[in-house]
Design brief:
Largest sheet: 6 strands, parallel
Oligomer: single chain
Distance between the termini: 53 Å
Structural class: alpha/beta
Length: 319
């Protein structure tokens, strides 16, 4: 069928949107001249604006009636040829149903986090790849897209806050839930090692809340920014240290050299995608996605010395 208008649905979060970029780019290549709209939560718009991929954004903030009403009007005003749900939740599948789409596409029900979402699709596909990036690409391939070129179209970002004038290592110490975080004391020890042994400075990035965390990490600079500021800082950093969270996936998508600190979650499915990231995980770490309020023992077991050595191995060819 001719395709001139595509709706991509991936509402959040940061890493998940980044993981959907290659599939969306493959669809754009497969259907030259098509208009691609992306349904997204407003706080993640900086990942998609000015990146050259999405022709328009349909922002949906479910906490505000006006936002939902405006999104509904926009969804109903465009006759999409395809609406593709890369999220697999009832809320995202409902967006495809609200759109006037000839075809509503998603993963088969057994692969959905909320199987009832499959009731909203006109076609469902089995995509067996292990990593979510490859799984998204497989879904796009069922529609005629080629996965030969994997690209992450991202905007340039914009300068925000203060960054060191000299070389720096960028880290985002806050994860989606505390079990995936690294202890503040470990960050402090790493900051001391970086300061005493290298010409680099450790910079802790995040939203406003990062300042409170960073107060327990003497020797580290603080960079408070939005997503756009994080993109800009990631492009400038000599290297990135990341947790299983969006900023790490951003660094991987930008092909930045990075050290990934993993504990309770499995990097083979949702880990950083690409060759520039070196992943550290305690041997024998239990895999669990329980959102517990304390740091997981496997993250405690990753020592500052081991992280520092991995960082030096990463940076040595660049010094």
């Amino acid at each position: 069928m001719p395709v001139s208008s595509i709706l991509v649905v991936r509402l959040g979060a940061m890493g998940d949107i980044i993981h959907a970029l290659p599939a969306a780019a493959a669809l754009k290549r497969a259907f030259p001249g098509c208009a691609l709209s992306w349904a997204v939560e407003p706080r993640w718009r900086d990942l998609l604006e000015s990146g050259g991929l999405a022709d328009s954004l349909i922002e949906i903030d479910r906490r505000g009636y006006r936002s939902v009403a405006l999104a509904w009007q926009r969804l109903r005003s465009t006759a999409f040829d395809l609406a593709i749900d890369f999220q697999g939740l009832i809320k995202s599948a409902a967006v495809t149903r609200a759109a006037r789409a000839a075809e509503r596409i998603g993963f088969e029900r057994a692969q959905l986090r909320e199987p009832a979402a499959g009731l909203f699709y006109t076609r469902r596909f089995h995509c067996p790849a292990a990593h979510v990036v490859d799984r998204n690409l497989e879904l796009a391939a069922h529609l005629g897209a080629s996965a030969e070129a994997v690209e992450f179209p991202l905007p340039p970002g914009r300068p925000e806050g203060d960054l060191p004038t000299g070389p720096f290592i960028l880290a985002s110490p806050l994860a989606g839930w505390k079990a995936k975080q690294w202890p503040a004391g470990h960050w402090s020890a790493l900051a001391r090692l970086i300061h005493s042994e290298t010409p680099y400075q450790l910079v802790l990035n995040g939203p406003v809340g990062v300042a409170q965390f960073a107060s327990a990490v003497p020797g580290a600079a603080i960079h408070v920014s939005s997503v756009a500021g994080l993109i800009h800082a990631s492009r400038l950093a000599s290297a990135v240290i990341g947790l299983d969270s969006g900023p790490l996936h951003l660094a991987a998508a930008l092909s930045r050299p990075a050290i990934a600190l993993f504990g309770p979650t499995d990097p083979s499915r949702n880990g950083p995608y690409g060759p520039t990231v070196h992943c550290l995980r305690t041997p024998g770490a239990d895999t669990t996605y329980a959102r517990r309020p304390e740091i997981h023992p496997s993250m405690q077991a990753l020592t500052p010395t081991s992280v520092f050595r991995a960082l030096i191995d990463l940076l040595e060819p660049r010094r």
